[in-house]
Amino acid sequence: MASEIAVGDLVQATGHAGPWKVLEIRQGLALLEHHAGHRLSVRTTTLSVVRKASPSEAAKPVVDEPDSPTLFD
């Protein structure tokens, strides 16, 4: 059920290989990230929880990773 899904949870999205980590939930959509760095936005009704996040994981803000250094850095 969508109300059980929270930021930081690992979920399985219907029709997509997973698991995915929930980064954000807004207006019935969840922003997910795969361990390989791929992102996906899906309706929360298509998700099932694989593992609930610990309270410390859910409290961490989402931070963009810095760009990788280039040959010229």
What does this structure look like?
By secondary structure, this protein is mainly beta. The chain has a 5-stranded antiparallel sheet with strand order 4-3-2-1-5, with no helix packed on it. The mean pLDDT is 80. It starts with 9 loop residues before the first strand and ends in a 14-residue tail after the last helix. It contains 1 helix and 5 strands; from the N terminus they run E-E-E-E-E-H. It has one helix at residues 55-59; strands at residues 10-13, 20-26, 29-34, 39-43, 47-51.
**Proportion of residues in β-strands:** 35-45%
Instruction: Write down the oligomeric state.
Output: single chain
Counting DSSP E segments of at least 2 residues, the number of strands comes to: 5
Assign the structural class, choosing from mainly alpha, mainly beta, alpha/beta, alpha+beta, or little secondary structure. Answer: mainly beta
Task: List the main descriptive attributes of the protein structure presented here.
single chain, about 70 residues, mainly beta, 5-stranded antiparallel sheet
Summarize the structure.
With 73 residues, the chain is mainly β. Helices cover 7% and strands 37% of the residues.
